Recover the amino acids of this structure.
């Protein structure tokens, strides 16, 4: 019979710590983890309206939802007990929500399109971590929001595809240490009501984007923008004010189209 050495015991303890850490990153408790994984394994990949209907009913057992959410197949939810969905929320396929520790709140009528990621998880217990989204927002395909410092988004905010909103930054002051070992800063990001972020926009930590702003495609927002700004470039600079009639005359003169969804959700 072999005798367990001190090295073996240390390795076993390390494996148990890694396992506990993994479970903590997946769910709020082991019993909840078992239930959540069972439901998502059984129902998560079911396509069509049948799958949408079953998930909308069954997933209310593992997350908080007002009404019946519309959740497409292959949506990944970690720590779903910390997720709250308003009425008429739509989660497209391949959406990924990681809601530990501060949670994710998504308001009524908001849609997350294919591949969108809302990621709160961090192992530093940051006090303001979380993502809080208002009503009637729309997040284009592959938009990614990192909420370690807290991200607060108002009503009627629209993004194009592949928008990056990151409320976290790495410290790199010491060139003799690996960046990964120097910690992070996380001040938080606020995006007020009625903002439109074009495709590929990047919003960095510590920024507030004021009500009614429009940010052009590919811009990098490194400083706060006053309300109703039109900003473009790298770094983003204010070039117009939406309240200036001449600034928007050309767009208003173009043909404007509305869709059935706007009519359904108007008011």
């Amino acid at each position: 019979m072999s005798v367990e050495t001190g090295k073996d015991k240390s390795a076993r303890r390390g494996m148990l710590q890694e396992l506990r850490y993994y479970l903590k990153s997946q769910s709020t408790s082991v019993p909840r983890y078992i239930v959540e994984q069972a439901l998502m394994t059984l129902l998560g990949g079911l396509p069509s309206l049948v799958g949408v209907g079953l998930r909308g009913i069954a997933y209310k057992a593992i997350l908080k939802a007002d009404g019946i959410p519309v959740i497409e197949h292959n949506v990944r939810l970690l720590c779903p007990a910390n997720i709250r969905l308003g009425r008429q929320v739509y989660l497209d396929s391949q959406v990924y929500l990681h809601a530990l520790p501060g949670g994710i709140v998504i308001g009524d009528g908001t849609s997350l399109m294919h591949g969108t990621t809302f990621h709160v998880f961090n192992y530093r217990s940051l006090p303001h971590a979380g993502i809080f989204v208002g009503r009637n927002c729309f997040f284009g395909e592959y938009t990614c929001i990192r909420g370690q410092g807290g991200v607060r988004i108002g009503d009627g905010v629209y993004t194009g595809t592949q928008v990056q909103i990151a409320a976290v930054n790495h410290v790199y002051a010491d060139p003799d240490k690996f960046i990964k070992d120097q910690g992070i800063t996380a001040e938080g990001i606020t995006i007020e009501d009625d903002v439109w972020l074009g495709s590929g926009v990047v919003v960095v930590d510590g920024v507030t984007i004021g009500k009614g702003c429009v940010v052009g495609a590919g811009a990098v927002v490194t400083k706060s923008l006053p309300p109703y700004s039109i900003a473009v470039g790298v770094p983003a600079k204010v070039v117009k004010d939406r309240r200036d009639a001449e600034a928007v005359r050309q767009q208003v003169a173009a043909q404007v189209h509305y869709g059935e969804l706007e009519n359904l959700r108007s008011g």
Summary: The chain is about 25% helix and 25% strand. The mean pLDDT is 90. The chain has one domain: 8-241.
